[in-house]
Write a structure and sequence with these properties.
This protein is an alpha+beta fold. It has helices at 4-8, 16-30, 38-54, 57-64, 81-88, 115-120, 265-270, 329-341, 359-367; strands at residues 107-113, 122-133, 149-150, 159-166, 169-176, 185-186, 199-210, 219-222, 238-244, 251-253, 256-264, 272-278, 281-287, 296-299, 315-322. The chain has 9 helices and 15 strands. It is elongated.
Length: 368
């Protein structure tokens, strides 16, 4: 019996991928559909038998230690426990050829948007590298309007059967045909563009409308925009996952927005009106007399659009009062007179229970 490694032209320490690659290369030369010479048909059977042994870890191990694999007759040593389980629990049941045309896989792509786009919605043009139907063969995988031919090895069954003797008796197992890879047919004249797969990699543009109110983690499903399956099968779906980029000074909390502003001590005492920048342009904020640091002003309907529902959240303005660090003599004298007018003694204080740090206090500390 010829050395199986020499038959496939690989080293004894060749990997499974090397063995598979060598077999495919030889099969393209010796397959009966390609080379009608009867001698070549025998050669093809020889390399197929070698591949069936060397591509199976158990059979290859048995062959390496001096066994016959399954090519030289029945051998208990060459029949593994996995083959016994296959035979008794459904592995030997004929499944028939697997279809060349199969559904494509779903795909996921992440898209970054800013807070304004999340609030009002937007439209994007996505450039996606994916599998599309081969335009040259229309997905058939065959060149020159040819069609796949029935495999001469498995006769279209997509499987080859093997009888072996074990401690449990004689059993029959089925394996995908190594010649046609289980398809039951062979493409003797494959398309030069897709190499018989029926699809090619290409970049395509996909328009997408992102609804108002989305946030990080939301996914948008685009049916039929995923990868085309082998043999030009139906395309899977494309899922677009939203990633919202943090705003420079606006902080989102569900549908509400928060902004922190700092006003002079005089404005806090006397009150007034300040102007802040929002997603809706400049907005006036009324500061009441005697406003304390930590106070809030709510601007209704200036938050994020509600994704499921109507209307928008609110914009909550958090106010910090700036205490001057240094003042001149004239300002210091005015402050002393102010304190005297209010009968305020700097040596007396009021003690209060310290409240828990609020949401925006934490945010403010981060900004600082």
């Amino acid at each position: 019996m010829a050395d199986l490694y020499e038959t496939l032209g690989v080293d004894r320490d060749a990997s499974f991928d090397d063995i598979k690659k060598a077999y495919r290369k030889l099969a393209r030369s010796y397959h009966p559909d390609v080379n009608p010479d009867p001698k070549m048909a025998d050669k093809f059977k020889e390399i197929t038998a070698a591949y069936e042994i060397l591509s199976d870890p158990d059979k290859r191990q048995n062959y390496d230690i001096g066994g016959s694999g399954f090519g030289g007759g029945f051998s208990n040593a060459g029949f593994g426990f996995g083959d016994i389980m296959d035979a008794f629990f459904g592995g030997g049941t004929q499944r028939g050829p697997r279809p060349r045309t199969r559904p494509g896989q779903d795909a996921l792509i992440k898209v970054e948007i800013n807070l304004r786009e999340a609030t009002f919605g937007c439209e994007r043009e996505l450039n996606v590298d994916t599998a599309v139907v081969c335009s040259k063969c229309g997905g058939s995988g065959c060149a020159n309007n040819s069609r796949p031919r029935t495999c001469d090895i498995c006769r279209g069954r997509g499987e080859t059967q093997q009888v072996a003797r074990s401690v449990l008796g004689q059993v029959m197992t089925s394996r995908p045909c190594a010649s046609c890879q289980g398809f039951g047919s062979v493409i003797s004249d494959p398309c030069t563009e897709c190499a018989g797969d029926g699809r090619i990699r290409s970049r395509k543009s996909i328009p997408i409308k992102i609804p108002a109110g989305v946030e990080t983690g939301n996914r948008i499903q685009l049916s039929g925009q995923g990868e085309v399956g082998p043999g030009g099968g139906n395309a899977g779906d494309l899922y677009v996952e939203i990633v919202e980029i943090p705003h420079e000074y606006l902080v989102r909390e569900e549908n509400n927005l928060h902004i922190s502003i700092e006003i002079p001590m005089t404005s806090a005492v006397l009150g007034g009106v300040v102007v802040i920048q929002t997603l809706d342009g400049d907005q006036k904020v009324e500061i009441k007399e005697g406003t304390q640091s930590g106070a809030t002003v709510v601007l209704k309907g200036l938050g994020v659009t509600k994704l499921r529902g109507s209307g928008r959240g609110d914009l909550i303005v958090h106010i910090d009062v700036a205490i001057p660090g240094k003042i001149n003599k004239e300002q210091a004298e005015l402050m002393r007179k102010f304190a005297q007018a209010r009968n305020e003694d700097g040596s007396k204080v009021q003690i209060h229970r310290k409240s828990d740090e609020g949401f925006f206090s934490k945010v403010r500390n981060v900004f600082r």
